[in-house]
Write a structure and sequence with these properties.
The protein contains one helix and five strands. It has about 90 residues and is of the alpha+beta class. It has a domain at about 25-75. Strand 3 and strand 4 (about 60-65) form a beta hairpin.
Length: about 90
């Protein structure tokens, strides 16, 4: 008997109706969508404000539309003993 088949009350095998499968959200799709959103938001913020604040090379910096970078403060790491797990 196939996986789709189900025995009905009268003992006859009938095919089970499958529910319409909806697309599911994978980790890759979620990360891709989040990255697209962050890039778009950064672009709009740069156009509106003329700069964005980002973390780069251990510093919090202000990146200007003309390419200048101004260091604001060093990043302070509380706990550097993170465990890296690759799923």
């Amino acid at each position: 008997m196939k996986k789709d088949a189900v025995i009905s009350k009268n003992g006859v095998a009938e095919k089970k109706k499958r529910k319409e499968q909806k697309p599911y959200l994978t980790k890759r799709i979620l990360i891709s969508a989040a990255n697209r959103g962050f890039r778009q938001a950064a672009k709009e913020a740069m156009e509106l404000m003329g700069y964005v604040v980002i973390a780069k090379d251990g510093w919090v910096v202000k990146k200007f539309a003309d390419g200048r970078i101004e260091k604001i403060s060093p990043l302070e790491l509380e706990n550097v003993n993170y465990e890296l797990r690759l799923d």
